[in-house]
Structure prediction request, 228 residues.
Amino acid sequence: MRRLTTFATVATGAVALAWGLPGNAVGAPSADTVTPAPIAGPGDLLGAYQANIDALKKFGMEPFLYPTAAAFCNNASTFGLVPAVAGAVPGPWPKTTVAIPGLDMTAVDAGQTMFTFVPLGVVSDTPSDTGMRVVWLNVSNGRTGSASMGPIGNILAAMIPPEVPAEVRPLAEKAVQDFFLSALPVGGVRAVPVDTGKGTVLAAVFGTVQNGKQSCFFLPTVGMTTVA
Prediction:
């Protein structure tokens, strides 16, 4: 219970700090230039939520307990609402996604957890390693920490080993991007691997993404995953 109380205290403090985050804290993968369809109204929010859940599950990620949203973030939607979900996946990852003979495509090592944030309705995003954050606690080993969540492009780049020859690297990058970006619905996707160690990991994801000139603050969403 003391560890859970510590996590709640850390998460609450992080949320308080998040309200003071500057409006220009932004970010997104460099390859997410595809413009998503606008969210027309409340009836579409459930479908948007399910689309994001499906995207996370396709990559073997466990969705967080509930979705989040940012208001006044997309002029095409009711109240400017942009729904979003977060998820987590323990390493090693990926296991059976993209395979290139002779190459180790692991982006998340054993003992690590990758946290991912996926909004739906971010049209014009700018790559950044700030804005979105994750606060986590491993209740099994007592480790705790926080980290900034960067563009998903950082994770994709990490999957291409440095020993790949320069003449082959563009083909490897395209193979990885074609697989991941075909399932990720929009811009604004964030991810970060952290050294949580093995055990039950609780986490809260929250923060800011820039959608064009609009600064979108996403309320905290909480999840749990087991790192074997």
Observations:
- The two ends are 22 Å apart (CA to CA).
- Strands lie at 62-63, 68-70, 82-90, 113-119, 132-138, 144-151, 190-194, 199-211, 214-227.
